[in-house]
Write a structure and sequence with these properties.
- It is globular, with a radius of gyration of 27 Å.
- By secondary structure, the protein is α+β, with helices and mostly antiparallel strands.
- An 8-stranded antiparallel sheet has the order 5-6-10-9-11-2-1-12. It has a two-stranded antiparallel ribbon with strand order 3-4.
- The protein folds into 2 domains: 167 residues, Cyclophilin-like (Cyclophilin, Beta Barrel); 51 residues, no CATH class.
- The relative contact order is 0.21.
- A hairpin with a 3-residue loop joins strand 5 and strand 6.
- The chain is built from 7 helices and 12 strands.
């Protein structure tokens, strides 16, 4: 009798434990799916380049690039002036090639002056790139990444925007507030300099630097992105914070190097035309 009761008790405990485990399994959330970045094949007249797009880091930029590439995004035709939809990049050239720097494409005019007829904002997290930790001026010298070559550059890039921020509009105010101004200069980071120049940043993004093989948007200043892009051939860290990096070459860098080696003429335009035949997902 005791043996029977013991077996029954064990069976009962087993059922209870099974129920508890099942309940625990139901309450445990399933692991989040791993995001898979889209890839595109850029078929050029000199070979294929495969690019992975950083969809989570630059969602608007990636959507714009894909929409133009596959013909689902409307743009202004440079010839007719009408809004159209078709694969934008088909037949466009790498109009600017600079060895040990970058390859630039995506201009419908072929001279760096064209675009899709609209602009959109940058997608950059300056803090993710560490620009908030780099002093703009240290030991009397400007940060190398600011590319300041002379006093005129320093005034244009650092002082004039800072004057505007502080409300300094004349020499009298400058003289009266020189100590305050010096403290402000000493406290500036590279990120602060760019913010004063009009760049806006998004702390929610995870940004990537302009390292070899990365794909970034070409622009003419803050929030002037359109269709033009470039492939970094070297580490161009001084472009960080000013150009949205939205992808990287995962195969075909040898093709990029072949394009890099081409002879160029005025405006760094290759003597031999190098075109983008198609961009496909």
């Amino acid at each position: 009798m005791k043996k029977t009761m013991t077996i029954a008790l064990l069976l009962s405990l087993t059922v209870c434990l099974s129920t508890l485990v099942a309940a625990d399994d139901e309450s445990t959330p399933a692991p989040a799916p791993v995001h898979k970045n889209p890839k595109v094949l850029m078929k050029t007249s000199m070979g294929d380049i495969t690019i992975e797009l950083f969809e989570l880091s630059a969602p608007k930029t990636v959507a714009n690039f894909l929409g133009l590439a596959n013909g689902t995004k409307e743009f202004k035709d440079v010839t007719s002036g009408k809004m159209v939809k078709r694969p934008f990049y088909d037949g466009l050239t790498f109009h600017r090639v600079i060895p040990n720097f970058m390859l630039q494409g995506g201009c419908p005019k072929g001279n760096g002056m064209g675009g899709p007829g609209y602009n959109f904002e940058d997608e950059i997290n300056a803090k993710s790139l560490g620009l908030d930790k780099i002093r703009a001026v240290k030991d009397g010298q400007p940060a190398k990444s600011l590319l300041i070559r002379n006093q005129q550059d320093f005034r244009r890039l650092v002082l004039s925007p800072l004057f505007k921020k502080l409300g300094i509009t004349n020499q009298e105010q400058l003289t009266a507030r020189k100590d305050e101004l010096q403290k402000a200069v000493d406290a500036l980071t590279v990120m602060d300099v760019y913010v004063n120049l009009g760049y806006k940043y998004d702390d929610s993004l995870k940004s990537f630097g302009n390292t070899p093989g990365t794909l970034a948007m070409a622009n003419s200043g803050p929030n002037t992105n359109g269709s033009q892009f470039f492939i970094n051939l070297v580490d161009n860290a001084y472009l960080n914070g000013k150009h949205t990096v939205f992808g990287k070459v995962v195969s075909g860098m040898d093709v990029a190097r072949k394009i890099e080696a081409l002879p160029t003429g005025a405006g760094a335009k290759p003597v031999k035309i190098v075109s983008v035949r198609r961009i496909v997902e």
